[in-house]
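lol forgot to send this yesterday, sorry. struct tokens for the thing we talked abt
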């Protein structure tokens, strides 16, 4: 193969600075967009405030009562009549904690009815969710 002097004098190089700029731009986009991808799996309730609220990190069954008195187990709508049956199916040794999220504007009678059903299930721990004042 014959090389010309002109070909020998050309220094080929790969400039990686534009590639680094593109990678950092993509990385910044992914980080910023992932902040908006958080998904909250709860029913929208306005919780009452409590000074002695404690965060729970255990796995639990989430029962929500919205301001209209609608009842939800883990974001699925149910009636008060099927609450005990559904809870006995969901509870086992790992999931024996039930957290009640009741809107502060819901009727007191509805909360008492749900608590009455919950107290009728053996080995069930009941927690009531509130917002911290701090």
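and heres what i got for the seq, position by position
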């Amino acid at each position: 193969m014959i090389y010309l002097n002109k070909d020998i004098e050309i220094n080929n190089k790969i400039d990686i600075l534009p590639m680094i700029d593109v990678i950092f731009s993509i990385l910044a986009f992914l980080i910023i967009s992932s902040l908006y991808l958080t998904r909250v799996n709860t029913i929208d309730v306005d919780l009452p405030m409590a000074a002695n609220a404690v965060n729970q990190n255990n796995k639990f069954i989430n029962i929500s009562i919205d301001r209209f008195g609608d009842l939800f187990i883990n974001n699925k709508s149910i009636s008060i009549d099927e609450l005990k049956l559904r809870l006995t199916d969901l509870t086992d040794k790992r999931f024996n904690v039930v957290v009640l999220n009741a809107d502060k504007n819901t009727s007191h009678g509805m909360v008492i009815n749900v608590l009455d059903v919950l107290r009728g299930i053996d080995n069930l721990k009941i927690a009531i969710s509130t917002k911290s004042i701090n």
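The chain has a mean pLDDT of 79. anyway ping me if u want another try
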